[in-house]
Design a protein that fits this description.
Layout: H1 21-24, H2 34-37, H3 41-50, H4 54-67, E1 73-74, H5 84-93, H6 103-123, H7 131-156, H8 179-196, H9 212-225, H10 231-242, E2 266-270, H11 285-289, H12 296-300, E3 316-317, H13 319-323, H14 331-335, E4 336-343, E5 349-356, E6 367-372, E7 390-394, H15 395-408, H16 412-425, H17 436-446, H18 453-459, H19 463-477, H20 499-504
C-alpha cells in the first residue's frame, strides 16, 4: 500500500500559438481537469491521499483548541510580546470569539478536505475502476468524511452537512444541521465504510492509511459522544479492536519514538516527514512546545528563532498536572521535561540544561520551564521542522475507552483488567477496583498532550466543573488574567463559527453565547 507522502503534480499547460478556433476550444491533452482526472485507479489513489492532508491542520490546531483548552496545560506569558493574545491566548482563557485564530484555519481545512472526499465519492461510479476497486476507494473516502465531520461536531456542534460535490454557487451555502443529524451522518458514513471492508492491520509498521481498527475506534467514540449514548454498540466495536493485531509496546516512551511510527500500538496517526522542501509534509509542533529560547540550537540541534511566527512557550504542562502523576509512573518523564537556565531583563531565556521532571529541584538563581517531551526527539536536521507523527487513536486509548464504556454500564469489575493492563506498562500497581474517576484519571495521564483532554471532559460531563476550578487556580496564580476569563458555560463547550465563514455563508447562524 502506498505511503501518504505521495503528492499530486499537475502537468504544465502547453503554450498555444495556433489561430484555429477549433484548436483553441480544445483542452490540451497535458492539462489535468476534473473532467479528465477522475478516471483511473491512479487518479483516485492520488485524490484519496490528498484528502488526508487536512489531518495535519487538526493536529496542530488541536494543541491550542483541545490540549491548551484543558487543565493539562497553559502557556508562558511574555509581557514583551502581546501579539499572540488575540490569536491564541484567548483560547486557553475562554475569551475566544469568532475572530480568534486557529479555529478558522481548522474549520476551513476540515471543510476543504470534505470537499475533496465528496468529489471522490461523486466521481467514482463513472470511473474506469473495477467494482472491487470502487469499494476500496469508497470505504476509505467514507471513513475520512466521517472522521472530519466528527471533528466538526465535537468542536462546533451542529454544522452544515455538505455531502455532495459543489458545482454551483447555490450549492456552496447551507444552514447548520442539528448536532444529532451530524452524529447520525458520521455513523452512517463510518458504518458503510466498515461494511464495505477496510483492511485489518496485520503487518507493522502500517501504511498510515485508514483501517478497520481506526473505523471501529471512530464509531465507538461517536456512539459514546452523541447526545443519546449507545454503550452496547460501542462496546462491541472496542472489543473487536482487542481481537485484532494491536498491542501495547513494552515501553511507554517507545510509543513516541519516531523509529516506531505506525507500530502495533498505533490504530491511527497523522503522518509527517522531516523534510527540507516546502511540500508541507513536516510539522513544527516540537518547536512550539519548547520555551522561547535565545539558544534553541542547544535544545534542538539547529538554530531557529521561535520568538515570533512559529513561536515557543505553548501548551506548557501545569504544576498541578505534574503533581497529579502517581509516584513511580513512568509516563511522567516520558511526557514532560524541564529546561533550566537563565532569563535576562528582556525575557531572553538561555537554556543550560534539560532535566527530568520526576526528581527536579529548581537551582537557586536560575529559571526553568516545563515542556512536553513526548514529541521532542533532537537533533533535528532542518530548522523549524520535525517528522514525528501525531497520535490520534492508540491501543492503550482503546482499552481505556472500553473501560469507560463498561463502567458507564455499571460493569466496573469487567473494566478492571483493561485499566490494569495500561497501568502495568506504566510501572504502577494494579487496582483492586475501579470507578469512573479512576478511568478518567488513567486516560488523562495515558493520553496526555495527545489532544484528547478537552473532548474527554465534555464526553464525561466534567468540562464545566473542571475548567471552572482550573480557572480559579490560574487567576490566583497569575494576576494578569482578566476577571472575565474562565467563564465556562454550556455555550463554551463549542467554539464560535469563524467570522469569515459567516460573512461568506449568509445561512450560517452563530453559535449561542458568541
Amino acid at each position: 500500500m502506498k505511503k501518504l507522502n505521495i503528492y499530486i503534480f499537475a502537468a504544465s499547460v502547453l503554450s498555444l500559438s495556433s489561430c484555429s478556433d477549433s484548436f483553441l476550444n480544445l483542452t490540451p491533452e497535458t492539462t489535468i481537469t476534473t473532467e479528465t482526472f477522475y478516471k483511473t485507479a491512479d487518479h483516485f489513489e492520488q485524490a484519496t491521499v490528498a484528502s488526508y492532508t487536512g489531518l495535519r491542520n487538526i493536529a496542530l490546531s488541536g494543541i491550542f483548541m483541545d490540549e491548551m483548552r484543558s487543565d493539562n496545560t497553559f502557556y508562558t506569558y511574555y509581557s514583551g510580546d502581546r501579539g499572540p493574545y488575540n490569536s491564541t491566548e484567548k483560547l486557553a482563557l475562554f475569551l475566544d470569539d469568532e475572530t480568534v485564530g486557529w479555529s478558522p484555519d481548522r474549520y476551513k481545512g476540515v471543510y476543504s478536505s470534505i470537499a475533496k472526499v465528496n468529489t471522490i465519492l461523486g466521481r467514482l461510479d463513472a470511473s474506469e475502476l473495477t467494482e472491487e476497486e470502487k469499494k476500496t476507494v469508497k470505504a476509505e473516502a467514507l471513513f475520512l468524511r466521517a472522521f472530519y465531520y466528527f471533528d466538526l461536531v465535537q468542536h462546533w456542534g451542529g454544522v452544515p452537512l455538505m455531502l455532495q460535490e459543489v458545482t454551483t454557487e447555490a450549492e456552496a451555502f447551507a444552514a447548520k444541521s442539528p448536532a444529532e443529524d451530524v452524529y447520525k451522518q458520521v455513523l452512517t458514513d463510518v458504518s458503510e465504510a466498515i461494511s464495505l471492508g477496510l483492511p485489518v492491520a496485520s503487518t507493522f509498521p502500517q501504511s498510515g492509511r485508514a483501517t478497520m481498527g481506526a473505523a471501529k475506534m471512530l464509531r465507538a467514540y461517536c456512539y459514546m459522544s452523541q447526545p443519546t449514548r449507545d454503550y452496547k454498540a460501542a462496546e462491541q466495536d472496542l472489543k473487536d479492536i482487542t481481537q485484532m493485531n494491536y498491542g501495547l509496546l513494552d515501553s511507554y516512551e517507545a510509543v513516541f519514538n519516531p523509529a516506531n511510527k505506525n507500530s502495533k500500538e498505533s490504530i491511527f496517526e497523522i503522518q509527517y516527514i522531516e523534510d527540507g522542501s516546502n511540500a508541507g509534509v513536516h510539522n513544527d509542533i516540537p518547536w512550539r512546545l519548547i520555551p522561547k529560547c535565545s539558544n534553541n540550537d542547544f535544545l534542538m540541534g539547529i538554530t531557529f528563532s521561535n520568538y515570533a511566527g512559529t513561536s515557543g512557550g505553548w501548551c506548557v504542562p501545569t504544576e498541578e498536572m505534574i503533581q497529579s502523576y502517581e509516584p513511580g509512573d513512568k509516563r511522567l518523564d516520558a511526557s514532560i521535561a524541564v529546561a533550566e537556565g537563565k532569563t535576562d531583563d528582556a525575557e531572553q531565556f538561555t537554556c543550560e540544561e534539560v532535566k527530568t521532571v520526576s526528581d527536579f529541584t529548581p537551582t537557586t538563581g536560575k529559571n526553568f520551564y516545563y515542556f512536553i517531551r513526548k514529541y521532542y526527539h533532537p537533533p533535528y536536521q532542518y530548522a523549524g521542522r520535525a517528522g514525528d507523527n501525531f497520535p490520534v487513536y492508540r491501543y492503550a486509548g482503546a482499552l481505556l475507552l472500553l473501560a469507560e464504556n463498561l463502567v458507564a454500564q455499571n460493569r466496573n469489575a469487567e473494566a478492571l483488567p483493561y485499566v490494569n493492563e495500561v497501568r502495568t506498562r506504566a510501572g504502577l500497581e494494579s487496582l483492586t477496583s475501579v470507578t469512573a474517576e479512576d478511568v478518567a484519571d488513567e486516560m488523562r495521564h495515558e493520553l496526555a498532550f495527545e489532544n484528547h483532554r478537552w473532548t474527554d471532559l465534555i464526553r464525561t460531563g466534567k468540562a464545566i466543573e473542571t475548567m471552572t476550578a482550573f480557572g480559579k487556580t490560574m487567576k490566583a496564580k497569575y494576576q494578569w488574567i482578566l476577571p472575565s476569563a474562565f467563564e465556562v458555560t454550556e455555550n463554551r463547550l463549542v467554539f464560535a463559527f469563524p467570522l469569515r465563514e459567516r460573512q461568506i455563508n449568509y445561512l450560517l447562524e452563530q453559535n449561542p453565547g458568541y
